[in-house]
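User: Can you help me understand a structure? I only have the sequence.
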Amino acid sequence: MGDPLRFRDDQAPEESAVSLDAFLGQSNASTVRIEAGDDVRLLLPEIDRVQLVEIDFPRFRDGRGFSSARILREAGYKGEIRATGDVLVDLVFFMRRCGFDSFEPDVPLNPADVEAALNRYPEVYQDATDGRVPIWAKRHPHEQHG
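Assistant: Let's start by predicting it. Here is the structure, written out as tokens:
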């Protein structure tokens, strides 16, 4: 794999990611890899020492990684969340909304296609971790969202 596509200004962590079990079993790791089926909530008590969470997508149709990213962001995690594996350009927009801010797919993404995917929808319909205001809230600003 090449350099990850990042939407962050900070330095990318250089430490290799370890499995969730290995991360929880040692105190000096700062980069963790979440596999399909791992419960990312186990990471929350240790979240302050995490610099990077890699979330693997074994198949594009396995959506558990979306939930993992959102759980981390809603818990206040500000570090990098990287999608790895079978990451398709069609999903990048939705991954960004859930909290992913870097991508290292098995097959490199065309930057122009990524840009088009991120700008395809000028409005959103749901709250998410990206802070964008849903269109219904713009139409009815007196109603609460978030």
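Now, to help you interpret it: Helices lie at 20-24, 64-74, 89-98, 111-118, 135-139. Residues 64-74 form the longest helix (11 residues). Let me know which part you'd like to focus on.
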